[in-house]
Amino acid sequence: MPILDVREIMRILPHRYPMLLIDRITELEPMVRARGYKNVTANEPMFTGHFPGNPLFPGVYMIEALAQLGGTTILEPGDMARKVPYLAGIDKAKFRRPVVPGDRLDMEARVIKHKLNIGWVAVEASVEGKKVVSAELTFSISIDPSAFAYDSSVLHL
Predict the structure, then answer these.
(1) Residue 118: inside a domain, yes or no?
(2) DSSP E strand stretches across 31-148
(3) How high is the pLDDT of residue 157?
(4) Which pLDDT score is estimated for 1?
(5) Is 50 a catalytic residue?
(6) Which range marks the domain in which residue 101 is found?
(7) 17, 44, 65, 152: least surrounded by Cβ within 10 Å?
(8) Is-contact 38 106, C-beta < 8 A?
(9) CATH number of the domain that 117 lies in?
């Protein structure tokens, strides 16, 4: 699949500023793997309090950025417009180095397995080729109620 810019990412994920944490997806093989990145900039709101005089990109934001990339990976191509991946679990998370403004967080996600509406994805991120974080994430894949707009037919069983 071609490179996805932020507008195309917003068609897949429900996140918006300030919580959309992927700037670009450079490779995407649905249900297999994805690569993307986030440019960490000094004007992001979390840096006013984390930490004044020594800004560090919080680990929870790194995991969220990886979860967003993993969420795009775990969806099948036909499901991208009507299903939403919800982060359901974080395992084996390890933080190895700090990430600071000016860094580019290069991310990769690989699908471990998929069963019914649950998916498991291995993720990792690096800065300048040095690994900064890795984890295994679990997703619950649900139908997006907004995909049905005002169609009441979904209520008829």
Answers:
(1) yes
(2) 33-39, 83-95, 104-115, 118-127, 130-143
(3) 43
(4) 54
(5) yes
(6) 6-155
(7) 152
(8) no
(9) 3.10.129.10
